[in-house]
Amino acid sequence: MPILYNEQDQTITLHTNHSSYQMKIGPCGLLVHTYYGPTAGGDMSWCLSFRDRGFSGNPYDAKTLRGISADTLPMEYPCEGSGDFRPPAFSLRRANGAVGCDLRFRSVKILPGKYSLPGLPAVYTDEAGAQTLEVTLADEAAGIEAVLQYGVLPELDVITWSARITNRGAEPVVLQAAASGALDLVSGDWDLLHFYGRHAGERAAARTEIGQREILIGSRRGTSSHQQNPFVILARQDATELAGECLGMSLLYSGSFSCNLGRDQFGTTRAVMGVQSEHFDYPLAPGESFQAPELALAYSASGLAHLSHLFHRMISQHVCRGPWKNRRRPVLLNNWEATGMDFTGEQILSIAKTAAELGVEMLVLDDGWFGARNNDNAGLGDWTVNTEKLGCTMGELAQKIRDMGMKFGLWIEPEMVNEDSELFRRHPDWALRIPGKPPVMGRNQLVLDFSRSEVVDEIFRQITDVLDECSADYVKMDMNRSITDVCSAVSGYQSQGKLLYQYVLGVYRFMDRLLERYPELLLEGCSGGGGRFDAGMLYYCPQIWCSDNTDAIDRIRIQYGTSFGYPLRTMGAHVSAVPNGDTRRRTPFHTRAVVAMAGTFGYELDLNLISDEEKAQVPVQIETFKKHWNLLHNGLFYRLTDVMKNRQEAAWMTVAEDGSEALVNIVVLDATGNSPNRFIRCMGLTPGASYRDEASGRIYDANALMTLGLPMPTVPHPRWPVQVTPCEYDAFQIHLTITD
Ligand code: DGJ
């Protein structure tokens, strides 16, 4: 059974197919954590140390047993006020202003199937063996109950956490922190891998020793952010792509979050993750509850590549939903980088015509089609079609595009309003603002109060009027600023600390309603590119625009970092024009396509403006993508080079789950004359098998490819009949198929 409650030992053990997790009801009812790692059993409380440590206090009921301390034991849901001075998962302010509470074990319940969370994203499964564990902790004196929820998905090798906090007392209380979960690892020197960045430079991979300190990463921006991603990895210091222990934590939440990590004075490493506790001051009246978002955990005993595979499978099959989850996504062309907001209907049709002729399958009309939106200072909030600009209605434009044989998609940014809009003039109180304080502006726009249902209703009505009219096949849902001035015109003083969380629930409700109304809709997430790229959004959008930076070389690093926690099929990636708008860099057309194929694949330029030679490549690229999409999107993904360190070449590959074929992708980052021989070591091939390079016919032994490596391809010299090393930014795709 995946969940075993041993009453005699007082242990609760969760088993997935290859990992085990254990907690124990310790002395004084403290719920302690004993184990997370490869399959193991029995009572593992032998790992606990009950030494009397100075300045580590003891529960009152421990009496003279001074070895019992919440400050030294590994705790399952550490609580401020229990004598644990490490980062807490839970903190409560009582009606009298005092902060502190002490949660102790009350009961345990095991339920069939995996729980779901109303109004919040959650991993789902119909796996027969999945189970839910609910462990109830309480502080009777404070009137607080915390139900720790665990989902155990044996085949997925995933464990999920959440927590539901209820005020069972007679007085109101305020939650100051209520994390989704905490993990205390009693042994080991762990590194943290986190994914940091900025707008147009998201999810750079960083690896740092956790060491003897506290590390706080997270977002205070109201969204999961470009700056830090709510996915982290703890890896043993010797862990590599193919070996060593590591575990990942992925928060299914799209708002401000935090992850506190550190190693304590006695060597236990703690990681606490959940909703950011700054700006979180969540009042609970008697009888009210707070539901923490879900956090998914996976453990790999065999390196980072396998850990990524676990998260890729979880996200693509058990987080993403809807008809598009396993379908090949249409190859789209988005007009944003071609025209910005300065377009006419005629221009869009001309772009669409060439795109259709070259094999593109969907035209997406980006920002600028509505209200007075001719630049980014006006119009947000007025979702009425600018028929003057289009020269026709949206229904007519969509029809013309469909007549060309393409699908039609539209951009929206529902959460925002410009002061220069009809909506704002009518409802200035719908924007988040602190009375009397000039608001902080972001892209000259304000954030609508999506915690209010009347606001969401009105925006939903306006936008769905347009989507109904044009029967949009696809919607790109954008969000282009961070949230400041966290103050709702309707929440009382006491409730402003709920706002950011309720806002996120409003966004989720909006997307749920869109998907209910248009069950066939393909929804793409976006927040100035990848500012809200998280597992929570992926519950609604099976793909997210990965970055506003479409430079192929920068994108390699962005997509590399993203790949640790998210599968290729979720990463919106397009071929754009050169010189690139962000970097001014020129890369070959082919290279841009190879990089975009490590994502959803599409175009972001006016194909009328490229050379005839490049035009001829477009149908070839589209055919290549169609030929390999199954391998690219369903194969096992391997990072062959560390692009944060290796400045010479970037390489990645996908391998069919049955090992029958593989696609190796190489981009030269730096070229030198008469260069030394270089080899790319493959991964994931079937040991002992042979593979044929489909282009050259050459046969390779898989073991040799995985040790010696694939020789870096050569190219013909421009003038002499010899082969030479490729040039900077050249790209290669090598399709290998297994021989009988
Ligand atoms: C930011 C997005 O990431 C871009 O792709 C584009 O849609 C613009 N917003 C439009 O304003």
In this structure, how is the largest beta sheet organized? 10 strands, antiparallel
Number of strands: 42
| Ligands and ions found | (2R,3S,4R,5S)-2-(hydroxymethyl)piperidine-3,4,5-triol
Going by helix content, strand content and strand pairing, the class is: alpha+beta
Silhouette: globular
How much strand? Answer: 25-35%
Q: Summarize model confidence as the mean pLDDT.
A: 97
* Beginning-to-end CA distance, first to last residue: 40 Å
Number of helices: 12
Low-confidence stretches: none
Q: Give me the Rg, rounded.
A: 27 Å
Percent of residues in helices? 10-25%
Word description of this protein:
With 740 residues, the protein is an alpha+beta fold. Helices cover 19% and strands 29% of the residues. It is built from twelve helices and 42 strands. The strands form nine sheets. Strands 6, 7, 8, 9, 12, 13, 15, 16, 20 and 21 form a ten-stranded antiparallel sheet that branches. Strands 30-29-28-27-24-23-22-32-31 form a nine-stranded parallel sheet. Helix 9 (552-563) links the parallel strand 29 and strand 30. The longest helix has 23 residues, at 612-634. It starts with a strand and ends with a strand. Bound molecules: (2R,3S,4R,5S)-2-(hydroxymethyl)piperidine-3,4,5-triol. (2R,3S,4R,5S)-2-(hydroxymethyl)piperidine-3,4,5-triol binds next to loops.
